[in-house]
Write a structure and sequence with these properties.
Order of helices and strands: HHHHHHHHHEEHHHHHHHEEHH
Radius of gyration: 31 Å
Shape: flat
Helix content: 55-70%
Distance between the termini: 82 Å
Strand content: under 5%
Largest sheet: 2 strands, antiparallel
């Protein structure tokens, strides 16, 4: 709890703090008592800074411990929630449903899952050698094999359906009953099924629009393969002028902005630019270490360039580039408009 309390006291933890907490939490958690585990999970369920690895580890614990975290934690992304529901089973999924807000993607994934509950206690005492589990239907049922199962079909007597006493019938859960009833209604009314499918596809499209993945670069500024190759080549040959020209072309900006970016000797502005343009990490590391050799030095056991890149966020870098381009257009257009009247008067 001391580790959890010290982590909670950090309003804006650094990358190093998150990494250190992720390394320490799991071994400390495993050697803690049951009560200490519950207290730690309850405290972390209100924290917005829990690392993704720790969040997945907590959410995968037994429900008696993980329930508060599954219900209230703001650190569980849609991908984590769907993964937990698929891997941990029906009880974790039902706990996830109790969250205040679920995205259409999570709702659609939970609705599409099919869970198979275990057999009731009276059915588990039947000899396993005489039972074949039918896993294709829900709820599961036991199918008893006859002792003369190897006989020819024509010699086999007709098997009358076995009466099952009411107290031995497998009780269906309410959600399974409602699911079967819904499937029957949809089978009888295909138009309704089409409407529901259209609504589901609309929800998926809205979710894709609101939560675009990082690899989706449609409509966003991106380096072409030729531009990336030119930047790597000019950095390898240490041609700063040609590199500035290629960078200005990639940004669709003036050469002045590209030179201004390169003049930042810390490498922060160039790293921001390359991250916002979605350059591959190996190419970015090569360019930064060639143009700024001090970034290849070690700092606290790791290269400075690695710490620099790890501290950048792609969305923030894109916003920073947009701000630079707006200022560049304003400055460049103003300077051009000031030069043109002078040129006209000189020609007269």
């Amino acid at each position: 709890m001391a580790t959890v309390s010290s982590f909670e006291s950090l309003d804006h933890p650094r990358k190093a703090d998150l990494r250190q907490f992720a390394l320490l939490f799991q071994p400390l958690f495993q050697y803690s008592s049951e009560e200490a585990r519950r207290d730690a999970v309850a405290a972390l369920s209100q924290s917005p800074n829990v690392p993704e690895a720790v969040a997945f580890f907590i959410a995968s614990q037994p429900l008696a411990i993980a329930a508060p975290f599954l219900i209230a934690s703001p650190c569980l992304s849609d991908e984590l929630l769907i993964t937990i529901a698929r891997t941990q089973g029906i009880h974790h999924a039902r706990t996830i449903v109790r969250r205040e807000a679920l995205s259409p993607a999570v709702i659609d994934a939970l609705a599409g899952l099919r869970f198979i509950d275990p057999l009731p206690e009276h059915a588990q005492h039947v000899d396993n050698e005489d039972i074949v589990q039918d896993m294709m239907e829900a709820p599961p049922r036991a199918i008893r094999l006859r002792s003369d199962a190897g006989a020819e079909p024509e010699n086999m007597p007709a098997i009358a359906p076995e009466k099952v006493p009411e107290e031995q019938t497998v009780a269906q859960e309410p959600d399974q009953l409602s699911l079967e009833k819904r499937e029957q209604v949809l089978a009888q009314n295909p138009t309704r099924a089409q409407r529901e499918e259209a609504l589901r596809q609309t929800l998926k499209a809205l979710d894709r629009h609101l939560h675009r993945q990082d690899r989706d670069r449609l409509g966003r500024r991106t380096l072409s393969s030729v531009q990336a190759a030119l930047l790597v080549r000019f950095a390898r040959e240490n041609e700063a002028g040609s590199f500035a020209t290629a960078l200005a072309d990639a940004l669709s900006s003036s050469r002045w902005l590209a030179e201004r970016i390169l003049l930042d000797t810390s490498g922060q502005q160039l790293a921001t630019t390359l991250t916002g343009l979605a350059m591959a990490i190996p190419d970015m590391i090569f360019i930064l270490t060639r143009l700024y050799p001090h970034l290849s030095q070690l700092q606290q056991g790791e290269p400075r360039v690695a710490r620099l890149i790890a501290a950048l966020d792609g969305r923030d870098c894109e916003k920073r580039i947009d701000a630079w381009l707006r200022a560049d257009r304003y400055t460049y257009q103003s300077s051009q408009s000031d030069v043109q009247p002078v040129a006209v008067s000189a020609s007269r």
